[in-house]
């Protein structure tokens, strides 16, 4: 066994149906009494209803969370936080809302509680991705990791199928990259394969029946495990390309992950087929990259970058940006091969097996 270092994250996780009822006690457990509730505009009604349930424990709501965590929105939220004299944050929602909470805490060290309603997984990572002047960057810091996470599967029962599929594939991406990360370790790999397996089982069941309660619970469980991997090991080519395209072209985060995943894995798999063989086995495929493509296609995931508004001319710019300040990857980044990868993802072609 190779030498390894494992550093776990210390979020308090509460998992189970109906656990949203424990939120008030969890706020008090942190020694807080005035929570600022965060959400996207889409979940405004849910955030306001949650504030009503919390009563005096809710200082107010801020419902302008958006994709890629723009710094200007973060600064606006901090101003509201200070004006309301809040003493903690409750992020209600998925990656956009969780990202905003983490961005606030990174700047003022506010205690964070997350009520996760998608399969994003970022709620258990000390990583913040934020965008300023069209450039998305990432930063790690202890203050970014939320203190408490509530996973209540009942809150995901009405998550639209399309969003369930893309956020689930987004979560799988975290775990798949963890298997070949430069600082990978056997503990993280065990968690990664468990998470991938749970989502592989759950997502088709959700597509067949969105009200399948067992599948919803399995998907949330899998997303937790996959997100935890992202918090313990480094990122590689897949996340670099997603950050480049998402931040620079303002593409939807989960959809971008879903489209690129089979292609980035097929690219890297050429260098480390042994490390990705367990993923192929879970998928019942010969290769992980083609297996992920077939799995995504089978559950109705978006398959083409051009459907997100990316033009053929954008691909040259994206390839050049990906080559600048690249993340470590088992297969070195080759300009022509990266451009070909993006072309296939743009057209929605199946990766080479």
Query: Care to count the β-strands?
Result: 8
Name the average pLDDT. 94
The coarse overall form would be globular
What profile does the largest beta sheet have? 6 strands, parallel
How many angstroms does the end-to-end distance come to? 30 Å
Radius of gyration: 19 Å
- Give the class from helix and strand content and strand pairing: alpha/beta
Order of helices and strands: EHEHEHEHEEEEHHHHHHHHH
**How many H/I helices?**
13
**Poorly predicted residue ranges:** none
**Helix-residue proportion:** 40-55%
Trace the largest sheet across and list its strands.
1-8-5-4-2-3
What is the percentage of strand-forming residues?
A: 5-15%
Task: Please tell me about this protein's structure.
- The protein is of the alpha/beta class.
- The chain is 52% helix and 11% strand.
- The chain is built from 13 helices and 8 strands.
- The protein has helices at 23-29, 44-54, 71-83, 95-108, 161-178, 186-208, 213-232, 237-249, 253-269, 273-283, 288-298, 312-323, 335-347, and strands spanning 12-15, 35-38, 58-62, 88-93, 112-116, 127-132, 135-140, 148-151.
- The chain has a 6-stranded parallel sheet with strand order 1-8-5-4-2-3, with helices on both faces. Strands 6-7 form a two-stranded antiparallel sheet.
- Helix 4 (95-108) links the parallel strand 4 (88-93) and strand 5 (112-116).
- The longest helix is centred in the middle third of the chain and has 23 residues, at 186-208.
- It is globular.
- It starts with 11 loop residues before the first strand and ends in a 6-residue tail after the last helix.
């Amino acid at each position: 066994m190779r030498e390894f270092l494992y550093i776990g994250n210390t979020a308090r996780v509460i998992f189970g149906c109906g656990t949203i009822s424990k939120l008030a006690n969890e706020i008090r457990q942190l020694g807080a009494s005035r929570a600022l509730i965060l959400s996207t505009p889409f979940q405004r009604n849910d955030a306001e209803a949650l504030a009503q349930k919390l009563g005096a424990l809710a200082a107010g709501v801020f419902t302008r969370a958006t994709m890629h965590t723009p710094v200007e929105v973060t600064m606006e939220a901090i101003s509201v936080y200070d004006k309301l004299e809040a003493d903690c944050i409750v992020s209600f929602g998925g990656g956009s809302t969780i990202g905003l909470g983490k961005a606030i805490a990174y700047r003022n060290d506010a205690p964070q509680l997350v009520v996760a309603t998608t399969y994003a997984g970022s709620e258990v990572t000390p990583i913040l991705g934020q965008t300023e002047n069209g450039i998305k960057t990432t930063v790690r810091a202890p203050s970014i990791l939320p203190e408490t996470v509530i996973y209540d599967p009942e809150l995901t029962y009405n998550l639209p199928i399309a969003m369930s599929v893309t956020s689930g594939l987004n979560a799988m991406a975290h775990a798949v990259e963890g298997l070949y990360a430069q600082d990978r370790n056997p503990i993280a790999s065990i968690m990664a394969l468990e998470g991938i397996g749970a989502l592989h089982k759950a997502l088709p069941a959700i597509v067949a029946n969105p009200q399948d309660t067992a599948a919803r619970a399995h998907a949330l469980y899998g997303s937790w495990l996959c997100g935890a991997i992202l918090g313990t090991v480094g990122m590689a080519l897949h996340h670099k390309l997603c950050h480049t395209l998402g931040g620079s072209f303002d593409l939807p985060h989960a959809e971008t992950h879903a489209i690129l995943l089979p292609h980035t894995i097929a690219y890297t798999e050429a260098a480390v087929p042994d490390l990705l063989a367990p993923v192929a086995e879970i998928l019942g495929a010969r290769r992980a990259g083609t297996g992920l493509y077939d799995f995504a296609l089978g559950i109705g995931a978006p398959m083409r970058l051009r459907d997100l508004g990316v033009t053929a001319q954008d691909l040259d710019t994206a390839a050049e940006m990906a080559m600048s300040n690249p993340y470590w990857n088992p297969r070195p980044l080759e300009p022509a091969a990266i451009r070909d990868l993006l072309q296939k993802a743009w057209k929605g072609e199946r990766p080479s097996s």
